[in-house]
Amino acid sequence: LYQRLTELQPRISEHWSNLGNCLCELGQERDALAPLQRALDCGGRSAELHYALARAWVAHGEPRRALDHLQPALAEYPHDPEFQLLRARALVMIDEYEYDLPFYLRPEKDVWVVSDWQDTAAIAARDNWRKELYDAGQFDSAKMREVLLLPGEFVARLCAYTGASLWLWGKTAQAQRYSFLPAEAIAFANARRTVWRLDAEQRRRLKDCQPTPPAG
């Protein structure tokens, strides 16, 4: 029906938006991108359209372009529970740092960054995000301990976290180092990056977060 309507009235953005949303609901987000983009080109500006475009861009492996559409959706409906699910309560970056993610996702807590912060020689050798964060930490040792985590500290911090959603952003090549993270928690993955979203119940079920049984 929606496909037919776009053929009969191709300049009406709602028809293209309805077609794209229908494809998203069927789990065909990749196919939804073209009609959703057409809806935008025809003047569509609704929060629902931007939300659907964000889903479609994620399916195409373009999380940064997805973030461009989340901002208008959240601005129009800042308290909508569906849109709020996309806003990170806490954000963890594993062996990399994407400067624009905290700006768009606006996590409630400072971003945790997991890396080998004890390898000071390697950090000093390259003028990159690791050196910048490490140097900043020298001015506030307490904050440094709070946000710059060693790989061995990560599991304990993950298990101790008592908030709601926790988003983890890391390189796919490093994913095997964190194999305890469940496959069903993967929100997006391609050859370069993997993004996990863990809610409180998923964290409680992690084997590494289970209490140690009493001896004997």
Tell me what portion of residues adopts beta-strand conformation. 5-15%
Tell me the number of helical segments per DSSP (H or I, 4 or more residues long): 12
Shape: elongated
Name the structural class. Answer: alpha/beta
Count of strand segments: 6
What share of residues is helical? 40-55%
Mean pLDDT: 82
As an assembly, this protein is single chain
Order of helices and strands: HHHHHHEHEHHHEHEEEH
Largest sheet: 6 strands, mixed
Spans of at least 5 consecutive residues with low confidence? none
How are strands sequenced across the largest beta sheet?
3-2-1-4-6-5
User: CA-to-CA gap between the ends?
Assistant: 66 Å
Cα-based radius of gyration, to the nearest Å = 20 Å
Q: If you had to describe this structure to a student in words, what would you say it looks like?
A:
There is one protein chain. The chain has 12 helices and 6 strands. By secondary structure, it is an alpha/beta fold. Strand 1, helix 7 and strand 2 (112-114) form a beta-alpha-beta unit. The radius of gyration is 20 Å and the shape is elongated.
